[in-house]
Design a protein that fits this description.
By secondary structure, the protein is an alpha+beta fold. It has 4 helices and 6 strands; from the N terminus they run βαβαβββαβα. The chain has a single domain (about 5-150), classed as ph1033 like domains (ph1033 like fold, Roll), CATH 3.10.590.10. The protein binds a DNA duplex through loops.
Amino acid sequence: MKYWLFKSEPEVFSIDDLAKEKKQTTYWDGVRNYQARNFIRDEMRMGDKVIFYHSNEKPPAAVGICEIVIEAYPDFTAFDANDPHYDPKSKKDSPAWFMVDIKFIKKFINPVSIGEIKLNKKLGKMRLVQKGSRLSVIPLTKDEYDEVVKMGS
DNA sequence: GCCAACGTTGGC
DNA sequence: GCCAACGTTGGC
């Protein structure tokens, strides 16, 4: 099993929005970065665990856990000219962009802020806190995942 | 609101 | 294939 961190701006889509969905699932659309795309398309598997992270919040923080329930399929928002994530490069017969579905598991009792993550020596190698890392979908080791869950619970 | 870091685009 | 210009991300 693999472990991931997904960033979202809570103004756009928060973990509470996910928890409020009818089946507590959503499709993770709008990833338009090739490295992140490759993680989604090639590496994410059913049951992988995902830390949900709020960016552009005060402070930015890991706020809960979810899991992958549907593996990669074409991101249909790329085909829709009226969608903000529209990308004419992506064709239905050769899609450039993919998405997975995730399901809510739980919110952290204590959100883990980026400051706390930076202070924890065990988390020093997380790509989230490395300089210039702007990936919206980040792989975690099991140890990193377990540590963040421990801090949040 | 600022700005550093990064990815992408497009002219050459 | 290089690289300057540009747009975006996201912490502060």
